[in-house]
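Appendix B, record 7
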Amino acid sequence: MAQLEARHISKSFGEHQVLKDISLAVHDHELVSLLGVSGSGKTTLFNIISGLLLPEEGQIFLDGQDITGKPGQISYMLQKDLLLPYRTIEDNVALPLIIRGEKKQAAREKVRPHFAGFGLAGTEKKYPHQLSGGMRQRAALLRTYMFSQGLALLDEPFSALDTITKGSMHRWYLEVMEEIQLSTIFITHDIDEAILLSDRIYLLTGNPGTITGELVIQEPKPRRQDFNLTPEFLQYKRQILEQLHVE
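Structure tokens (predicted):
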């Protein structure tokens, strides 16, 4: 059984149909990317999966349970880190637990053991403005993980980072994801990023957006550091470009 399933999702805003008959699945410990150009409905689909929007048609299942229109079941990280500037990093990370009703001190004690694994040791009492962009994203990802039930939605979390920092974050995220066994659905319009990170890639194209292709990345994890320079990588990229060109 898939950990998450979207079955035949369609969504319109007024007379404009945004999504048409979208079906996808994520299995345990997979990283699945939604790759598409701006305006293809990726964020709308994420809002439906997270329960923030209701579809006109279709259902969302998490571990076999219908969660359609039920927010709070799946953690969701947006492009910006959205760390609260007046809270320490520790309290930012603990916020999901506090919202769930845990006492502040108990929540702090629960998140502290994870700081080292996320490369954040020593930042607990710092404030967001004292961290680099990459470190802020690590903190935001840890906060997302603390809220997750083993699955997270990430909406272009590395898009604001410079190329060197982004590459470092890609390698780091794959290592951490392997260690904590987190399943991820990842929105991107960056073809290289999708190939480097994903187990599978869904191509979401058209207007309204539909799934027009699925690509399995056979390269084992952890990925070679030079994977993006290999003939295999270029072949995956060629396949995606050909599919997007057709659409």
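Remarks on this record: The CA atoms of residues 83 and 92 lie 6 Å apart. Strands lie at 4-13, 16-26, 31-35, 57-62, 65-66, 75-77, 151-155, 183-188, 200-205, 210-216.
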